[in-house]
User: Fold EF-hand domain-containing protein from Euplotes harpa.
Amino acid sequence: MNKLTEIFKSIDVNNDGKLSIEEISKYIKKVMGSCNSDEINEICDKIDMNKSGYIDYSEFLSATINKKKLLRKKELKQAFQHIDRDGSGDISKRELRKAFQTKGTK
Assistant:
């Protein structure tokens, strides 16, 4: 099983072959400690190409592999640099936590 399949299956807790917004939110909270539901809804809406209300495996792969759908490379680099306050090239838990607090999410 490849890494993307493993990630998809770990998010799909009810094993129905599709990801609900609730499953995605729970996964992000588990991994990152917090999430902004408005941002998650917006991202899921962009990924959900057939507007079914769920993210199926092909949509998940498309969004994961084709990151241009969500953020262009330049925007991603700017966001990374903004969060990486010490310029180390790595984002620490502290820097990530600070970025979410600044955004209004704790």
Observations:
- The radius of gyration is 15 Å.
- The mean pLDDT is 83.
